[in-house]
TrEMBL record:
Domain HTH gntR-type: from-to ranges: 26-94
Stored InterPro entries: Aminotransferase_I/II_large, HTH_trans_reg/aminotransferase, PyrdxlP-dep_Trfase, PyrdxlP-dep_Trfase_major, PyrdxlP-dep_Trfase_small, Tscrpt_reg_HTH_GntR, WH-like_DNA-bd_sf, WH_DNA-bd_sf
SMART domains: HTH_GNTR
Family: In the C-terminal section; belongs to the class-I pyridoxal-phosphate-dependent aminotransferase family.
Protein source organism: Actinocrispum wychmicini
Keywords: DNA-binding, Pyridoxal phosphate, Transcription, Transcription regulation
Protein name as catalogued: DNA-binding transcriptional MocR family regulator
CDD domains in the cross-refs: AAT_like (cd00609), WHTH_GntR (cd07377)
Amino acid sequence: MEAKVDRKGRVAELADALGDWAAAPGPRYRTLADALASAIHTGLLGRGDRLPAERAFAGALALSRSTVVAAYDELRGRGLVTSRHGSGTTVAAAPGRGADQTDGRVAGGQATALLQRLVDRPPDIISLAYAVDDGTSELADELVDLARTDLPRLLRDAGYHPHGLPELRTAIAEYYCRSGLPTTPAQVLATTGATQAIGLATQLYLRRGAVVLVESPSWPGCLDIFRAAGARLVGVPLDEEGIQADVLASAITGTQPDLLFVMPAFHNPTGTLMSAARRRQVAALCDRHRVPVLEDISHIGHPTALPAPVAAHGTGAAETLTVGGLAKTIWGGLRVGWVRAPIEITDRLTRLKALADLGSPVLDQALAARLLPRVGELADRRHQLRRHRLAHATELLRTQLPSWRWRVPDGGPALWIELPGADARAFAAIAVRHGVEVVPGSTTDSGDEFDSFIRLPFTFPEEVFTEVISRLTRAWDELTRHGPMADPHGPIV
């Protein structure tokens, strides 16, 4: 964490990194102090770092200033911070803890609160950070049949396949051929989820100071991967057809980027489907300027129902890597992904993957190879369920939160909602006190254009989503009627 954390961006970054501290039991000033103490012990805040100004931090956390003042007093009492008039509050040495010690928190300023919350899994919190569905019944059937018919053959194998299980790579190649993108198994690398594929591409293309063009907004989990590599992110806005080609052209000539990252189907968090015409424009621009493209198409379905990937429209002048996976169509727990690229790029990525894990789990890959030929059928069933849940979600929103605004997405599992006249980060801080974790739009972009937006998945069963909206309604009432709430358990001075 850089020392000057009291500027708006640094204040927001620290507020996010503290995680769901407000859901912990006890007086609010003390739970905030505990969260800051943990950040000091794990190295997120280092010796000499300055804590945010009390008023600015209170605004970011949707608290009263007196609560933050009391939390800082608590930290001073523990010997973790010191204060000097005119210089603010700074971190002192963390007593009894070495720099290499940890308490289980995700370390480093680049890791978002999303990752920390996945580790912590706070009780009684309904998380809107991950839009996931239950596993399909077909997955269970295929798993049983796999154990009965294929397991003896698989167990006779050594089990190390850095490129991926051959039958899975063949199934992926056939899927892309049907999608309009000619592919051979040699162009495919199987990975442990799409996230690993993005991480491997980042290792290959990015060094500290590299420039990555990204859609604005984009998903913070992907942005964190690029930031962790030391890259500088430049956002390019979207319209109803996807990333804006004219702005992209200007960004390419103005920044000479090392990589372009896009999510053509369906964009996260807006749910936009990039049109075929826009994909051709993106491919032509990147070919002309030889900008490598990383396209994440993790929402897969009928191979002929969606426009062909960006890679299908290029001449090959620009290296284009197409990432996919089964988590969003089959089940989040099936951690099977892949990347399709020119053979020489796939070989380089394979060497990086071999250094990481020698290859993804064989049984998972074998199951994925069985399911991939049926992915169109399975995606159709998933789509029908999501349409029903989307109708339920929009009816609840219109009834209970009529001032909220959104556009029905082209696809995907979530709504991108604008909260009129509100700071979504402040709303998220209040929502977690009502038992719901919200992803504010400010985490999806380095600017302030989406500060009033949140992402709202509708993949929950109806009774759970009904409870989500009930809690969010109470949080919204608190924000709009009363603003930040003072801590009733604060010390009496």
